[in-house]
Amino acid sequence: MIALTAADYTAVSQHVALLNLTGGVVYDALILRAAERAGVDRVLTFNVDDFRRLWPDGVAKVAAP
Questions:
Q1: Considering the entire predicted model, what is its pTM?
Q2: How many Å is the Cα radius of gyration of the chain?
Q3: Which of 11, 16, 19, 56 has the fewest other C-beta atoms within 10 Å?
Q4: CA 62 → CA 7, 32, 45, distances in Å?
Q5: Residue 63 pairs with which residues in a beta bridge?
């Protein structure tokens, strides 16, 4: 379990705003922030396009199950 800090929430909010995204994609961004902090090897999702759009540095780590 990864606890996000206030700074994490701020960074995610700013990142999503810079991409001009709203809605449920914010939750995807928070999941990716936690994954990044945890140093995961892979993020599995049925929503690959949104996750890759949010995390360009982790594109190779995002895959469909």
A1: 0.86
A2: 11
A3: 56
A4: 24, 10, 7
A5: 44
> Does residue 1 fall inside a structural domain?
no
**DSSP type of residue 22:** -
Asked if residue 59 is part of any domain, the answer here is: yes
Write the CB contacts of 41 (distance below 8 Å, at least 6 apart in sequence): 61
User: pLDDT truncated to tens, each residue of the chain (65 aa)?
Assistant: 889 999 999 999 999 999 999 999 999 999 999 999 999 999 999 989 888 888 888 888 999 99
For the chain, what is the domain count? 1
Token digits for 7?
Answer: 């700074």
Tell me which residue range forms the domain holding 16.
6-63
DSSP class of 4: P
Query: CA nearest 57: which of 9, 3, 17, 43?
Result: 43
In a domain, 13, yes or no: yes
